[in-house]
# Entry
Amino acid sequence: MRLADDVATCASMAISLEACAHPKPGNVDRLHDFSDTKLQHFLATASAVFPWMRRACWRGYRVRRGTLPPSEAALGWIIKGAVLSMLRWQKGGNTSLGSIILLVPLSAAAGACGKLPVGLDRLRDWVGKLAKATTPRDAVEVYEAIRRVRPGGIGKVSELDVMDPSSTKQIVEKQITLYQIFERSAHYDAIAREWVTNYRLCFEVALPEFENLLRRGFSFSEAVAQAFIKLLATSPDTLIARKAGWEKAKWVMRAAKEVYEAGGVLTDEGRKRVLELDRSLRAKDNLLNPGSTADIACATSMIALLRGAKP
# Structure
């Protein structure tokens, strides 16, 4: 199906374009690698997840046609499949767990919209419907995917800890859906918060900035980088919070706000401050890597592509 191919292409391109965008303080970009995770690993991931984003689109399309109930969109199974494919096809470890968790519902929602380019309100409406229709089976699949990845700084929580095998039994016995899991974790995890706020940061904070810059003639890379800085200036990065503590995450947010107010990547002074912030974040053994912000910037990039933007 042409639609499924096109939507999966948007998802794969979003991963590649976000990874390459420069400058993105503290993250892998086209000029910076980490010691264990490099740009090539993100590009490999972009290709590896294509079939799973295609499946997500197709199932969303079937939901729209009425041949599949929303509860059987199988977002959890698709997330798990994409994560395992990510790990299978590259040696850089966890490149894109958060991005995958955000891109799968977007792919399914785009399928439910029925055509590209998508309408913004319709896309967001379908994202919310599909997320709320998730099941305990979806939760179990996502827990299994996260356990395979073992993301950095994941820590422990008092209830339904993802690394505790007994959590799976509790999810099944209490019939807790994936959406409900994310509701419980939204206060400390930005990716979960996007799910339960219907992608608020993507749609309301980053996308207007992103599309405005494209209309003004800035490059796709500049739009990604500037949207990334605005996101980082808006909300503490929860990956930094898990690895280095909330005070560090808030310090990075305040520093990003100063960078954004100076113009970010759009002015000479702003770019100078972006590079200064980048150096300060890279001096901490990647503890100050704003990975959650990068995932949200990636999802924003996909929305822009679904709406017809081109690099």
The chain has a mean pLDDT of 95. Residues 189 and 299 are 16 Å apart (CA to CA). The first helix runs from residue 2 to 20.
